Amino acid sequence: MTSPANRCGRFAKRPPKRDTDPMARWLLVLACVAHVPRAARAQPSAESSASERLAMVDPPAAREARPAPSPSTSHGVPDRGRLSSAVPLEPTPHLFVRQSRGAAQFGTAELVGLIQRAAAAVAQAHPGPRLVAGDLSRARGGRAPPHRSHQSGRDADLGLYVLDASGQPATLDRFVSLRRDGCGEAAGARYCFDVERSWALVAAMVSDPIARVQYVLIAPDLRRRLLAEGERRRAPAELLARVALVTEPHAGSHSHRSHFHVRIYCPPDDRPGCIDEPPYHAWYEGTPAPPTPAVRGMRARQRRARAREQARAAARAARHAARARPARRAPAAPPDPAAELATP
What we know:
alpha+beta; Muramoyl-pentapeptide Carboxypeptidase, domain 2; 2 domains; 3-stranded antiparallel beta sheet; 14% strand
């Protein structure tokens, strides 16, 4: 009896005649394919693409793990954007998610993963309280009052870690606004800045292998405490430089006394619909998408509005200085010698 392999060999050398039943020809082809050894089928042909040949030589299990394309998509800019296929931020043993009236607990998969990984890293290094997460974005993005940004799934408010009056890590369900001395009150109790855990949080975020952090807004005096903690712990120079860059004071930094405002860059697979704006740090991946005409017009209007506000502020300061300055007295007239001689 002729083996299937022999029949396949003869078929490769001399194909069947044209008058052979078509169904019989297809059955013979399928039989040949089934009996070709697996290793022989895996050999790359001359027409194979480079990626196919690489996959055969270097299987995925042997290559460095790469994140799969995320299901979520960020559109536009943080203060004029939207979000599709949003991912909800769920509580974990290391993370408390504060509910808000606007249901703003959604973000891109990259942002949500960043928060969860950073909270777990802090809990592993310094067991104790959970990280308190505030607003992210709405399920479809767009305006999320009272925030001007938080529209495209790339912004998050994360509470500062705090210590209670006895110096122990405090587990809270709210943010605590801290004064310049690093302490504040909430619900009748006194709390102070837990700089150790807060440093660990920021260090974990700027070192994340997937999400790329652009901003971490915090009040300048609290930022100085944070950087001093990094220096005290003798953190690597590159890590210190990254934290210093992302926490560099901006226009809105002074108001962030109870929480960090974290913003990440657009995930590469969300561009060009997702638009990044400067600064572009050294760890930025790829090329930013150009701003749309709508974004350029919005930024021009914002610049004009800021210029008007600065002019009004300068005028108010000038009026205040004029009112605070004492009125100058007119100098006294010198005595008249003729009048003095005429006096008896």
